[in-house]
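worker-03 picked up job from queue 'complexes'. Input manifest follows; two sequence lines, order preserved.
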Amino acid sequence: MVELFVGIDLGGTNIKIGCFDSELNLLCKTSTPTDADMGPEAVVEKMAEAVEQLVAEAGFELQEVCAAGIGSPGPARYSKGIIVNATNMPKFKNVPLRQMLSERLGKLVVLENDANAACWGEYVLGAGKGVEDMAFFTLGTGIGGGIITNGELVHGWDDNGAELGHIIIYPGGRKCGCGQRGCAEAYASAASTAKRAAEAIEAGAESSLKEVLEKKGKITSKDVYEHLAGGDELAREITDKTAEALGILCINVLHATEPKRLVFAGGMIAAGDVLLNRIRDYFDEHIWALKKETVEICFATLGEDAGIIGAAALAKRLYEHNKGKS
Amino acid sequence: MVELFVGIDLGGTNIKIGCFDSELNLLCKTSTPTDADMGPEAVVEKMAEAVEQLVAEAGFELQEVCAAGIGSPGPARYSKGIIVNATNMPKFKNVPLRQMLSERLGKLVVLENDANAACWGEYVLGAGKGVEDMAFFTLGTGIGGGIITNGELVHGWDDNGAELGHIIIYPGGRKCGCGQRGCAEAYASAASTAKRAAEAIEAGAESSLKEVLEKKGKITSKDVYEHLAGGDELAREITDKTAEALGILCINVLHATEPKRLVFAGGMIAAGDVLLNRIRDYFDEHIWALKKETVEICFATLGEDAGIIGAAALAKRLYEHNKGKS
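worker-03 finished. Artifact:
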């Protein structure tokens, strides 16, 4: 009998599911939409049916699945397997998701923060391979984070560790959605990057992005990077500030847990080397002189599969841990 | 036969040594001076003799000592037991201190960063008792740090984790001795607190500290807090900035590893509640609104013994770990 592991990425609009062998090779994957009206029972049923169908399509039996992992947004009590709230699913309040799916499938289930799951995926099979200490930043609408120290994910006392986007970079600076001022997220998320560009144009800055704003009524971070490639000066200034915030964020995380590798993921990394190199420049410009730092600042390599890979890897880890104890 | 553990705090001018029972009760302690000319062999011999004498004075036999721990300043390769450099002892270059003392005493020895050793002491027996996740800040000439997450010290990939004083709070701000600008240490160490006061007076600020500066030629952080108690406005401003930097530092460390307790130690805590309360005020003022934080910001309770207690506790832990394996 083969040993299979299932990785589930519970998003606001979709549930992504992957089926993996014991070497964590992705055998097949699927995606199924969720909607805001669904209650926990309906979501669990949908998840379970999708898992059953996926395993069958891959030519295996459900009994060959050893364990499943779920990556989910918070706030949650991950260690207890409970979703406290789900922004996109109002019917989710204190849902014991781990137990519900475990009982429905008759399998061992692990629940993890979505950014942590993706971080663990990159650590095991992606940009973090070969190191014991890593930091992970997802540059999306917001900035999520993950930290691995001594080969373990940092959870924090209340399951809210590694909220790296909310490290304050510029005290008294831009207001962040979290209520703080000057967070990394208020400068360097995709949403903030776009917003800073729009604000500058509205304040009178000259830029080729002006036409985009007038035509579409908004600017995206993708627009900023496209116009940067086209030589637009405002796009360069906006990108520089994004990179400075991220360079200082790297320094601050370095002085906390000293990761060997700092990995950026999320939609913004489509900007490519022009962004990555500026982050490295600012890191080098601001970092101390007490010792020569040889940490690596790089992009994630697993793309959108990082979440399901990480969730499956955590499931495998839990399964093997439990097997070792019995 | 009783089981004893020895804790050693290797400082720039003194070696402090404590002898502990298996419950980590301090049985007796001693201190012996070092001088800059001493080479590694002389320091190890001095350390070993002091241990032997201390154990004898306490009425025990050396064979009752199970293990010893050393807390030492870096840079060092703690995991390998090697001191790379010792600022105050120029003859220390790549010294395998752990092995040397282990061979001389015939005992198991562990080498740890001095701030980490003190952090571990507070964690086991002091202000960190009862939590699994803690951050530790020593407010001395500089600012040292320690982080415990999931009950383990964070070392970082290159043994330079938890350099919390060098987290950047004000980018482009005051120059720090490390070469960065705007580090917490550049505002909130004892030396920086005193220096900011002196600079303000030299720039023309009115203050009762002016007389101190004129009379003694310098100001200490102790002077600042004494004059704060006396109602001096400049002392209040200086203390406020110290507290703001430390409050933001607490937030940034919270968003990294989410400690339940943030513990301040070092000479500066003699300032008392007036400082502690301002740090808490700034933490509350700047912290996010996404959730109500219930972390505790407090002072260390073990005083100068934290280092020897932590070193002995680490020795005990290593001994028990090795015993468990055999």
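worker-03 released lock.
The first strand of chain B starts at residue 4 and ends at 10.
Chain B has a mean pLDDT of 95.
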